[in-house]
Each structure stands twice: as structure tokens, then as C-alpha cells.
Here is the input.
Amino acid sequence: MHRPLNFGCTLQAFATQEVLERLGHQVKMIDYLYPNASRDHRINLRHALLHAGNRLLAFFLTGQAFSRREQQYRDFLQQRLHLTQEYATKEDLAKDPPDFDSYCMGSDQIWNPNFINEDTSFLGSFVPDGKHLFSYASSFGITELAPKDVPEYKRLLQRFATLAVREVQGQTILQNQLGLQAQRTLDPTLLLTSDDWDKLAAPYPISRKYILCYGAEPAGISLVRKATELVSQMSTNSNERPLIVHIHGRPWQRFSSQAKYLFDVGPAQFLSLIKHASCVLTTSYHGTCFSLNYRVPFWSFTPPNGTDTRISDLLHLLGLQDRRKYFGEHLQSIGELRESYPAILQKERETSQQYLQKALASHSMNPSK
Here is the structure.
């Protein structure tokens, strides 16, 4: 899902491509124009008018900032991803699929039924029979499949030569509901190091220390309010109070006079903003991933009884459970990250790369599969 205006979607696609190329393969990204009408049968005139109204409001509130943001995404896709021809619908993709030796499905929430609805393209339905098909770090983003979805998921996923998912819950769904085995692997953005990401990063002009806020804010949570709590607890001996910076995607949501809101950030500038932050406050899985990559102190906020275990699974894997906060908890300090986690992360990188090597080596030794 590389097309949405979302840092995680775009950067995980690039990382997957980059790692596979480093393993010696020629790689193309199937340019499926998701989201589209195939994904959401509810798209109608009302939704089209609402979307147009939101875009008009965004332009009215931010001027050209949203347009610059969209252009930066388009530039990144065209300059950094090796794209096939465009496929506008699932019917287009199934009718004339691109011809490859091997097909890799991943990552992010490509198997979340709430996202894909009845579009089975991300389950490999378009891949011709007999072709090598495997997944990498795919995510369900839910705790279990609805009974009505089980037969179709099982029918399609049992065609895969090997399966790899990103969360423990994904392994549980595959084993308990579908009778399939899967290896757990890292999100592709974590397979690249900070030095790798630095080659893509573009500076964003902020001349003073700042705390960065990034992620969706459900009812009852304000990252800026959390950042304000944190700033008030910091030493008064500092020469200047850190600026609170919020990467904002929806200009019609609530604002605070305590923060500087950024509406024109593209994928390359996002990397730089994470790297140079004094601390990151996020509700985002990939906000967490890039904080880890850059070893920037962070706090990841999740609901206490949420069904999305992506962040908690990752932090538990790296021994950083203390960096998770529930929405109602207060912040008292930035705190330092545990020094042990980079070694764990590097070991997990090696394990994940070994999975990819074996998945592709197995196919090259058995080309008929």
C-alpha cells in the first residue's frame, strides 16, 4: 500500500524494494492505485463531495502547504520506487497481471479486512497459478478474523510458499484460524539503518530544539498536551524551552497555540524531523519505528484495551515496554532509551534478512513451484 499519503506506507515500500535489491534481485513495485473504488463499495456522490470539501478546506486553512506535501509524495514515488504500469482496479490487475518470477506481498496492514474489504488483490488473488508467492512482514492489524472472512483468507493464503508476518497476533490468526504457519519478521523500515535513511533525508528548517508530535489523535488524546506536560517538567536551567512541533495531516482538527503545526512535510523531510527531535511523541507504528532507527527518545501512546498490537509487540520484542504509554498517563521526563535494544534490533534484522534469502533461494532451486 505505497500510494496513500502516509509516511509509513511510502517508506516501508521503499525499504522492501531496497533490501530485495541488496539481495541481488531486480525489483518492481506493482503500482496498484489503492485506495480505489474496488476497495470501498461505499464510495458514492456523497463521499466524493465530502472528499472534495475536505480538500477545499485544507487549501483554505493551509494555503499551498497541502499541495507541496502531495507533490513531495509524488516525487518520492516517481524517483525512488521502481513502478510497473498503473493498475486502477482489482479487475485491471487480475486481467493483465505483471509477469514476474516471484511475487512478494507486504507489508503493513495489507491483510486487514477493515482496509481491503472485498479486494483480495493483497492476498495474491491476481497471481497466476504456479507462480512463486510469499509474504514479508504482512500485518492484519486486528486480533482475529470474522468467521465470514476465514474461508477466503485460507483459500488464498495457503497458496503462499512461505508466510512472514509482523506481529505475534498475525501468527496466532494464521495458526488458530487458518491452520497455517508463519515466521515473525521485522517491519521493512527497520531492516535499514539510520545511515541508510540519511541518504534519503531532506532537512526541514527548524532552528531550535523541539519535541515532535506525530500520529492520529483519537478522542481524549492530544499529543500537544502531552508535550506541554513534558516541557513543563524539564529543567528550568535550559537556555530555551523546546519548541513543540506537530506534523499535522488534517487541518480541520483541533489546534493548540502551544505548537507549531507543519502541513507540508514529505517522506524525506519526515526522516530529518525524526532524527533531529529531542523527543518524539507518537501514536503511530512507523513513528515508533523511525524513532528506534534514529535512537531518539520517544513515547508511544496506545489505548489500554486496543485491538491493534503492532506497537506493543514491537516494543516487547526489543525490551522497550517502558516506552509505551496509555492515553491517560502523564509524562514526567524524556528519559533515555535502554542501551541494550540496538543489539537486539540488529539480531532481528539478520533473522529477517535470512528469511528473505531462504524464501527466494528456495524458489530458485525449485523453479517449478
Remarks:
- The domain at 197-338 is CATH 3.40.50 (Rossmann fold).
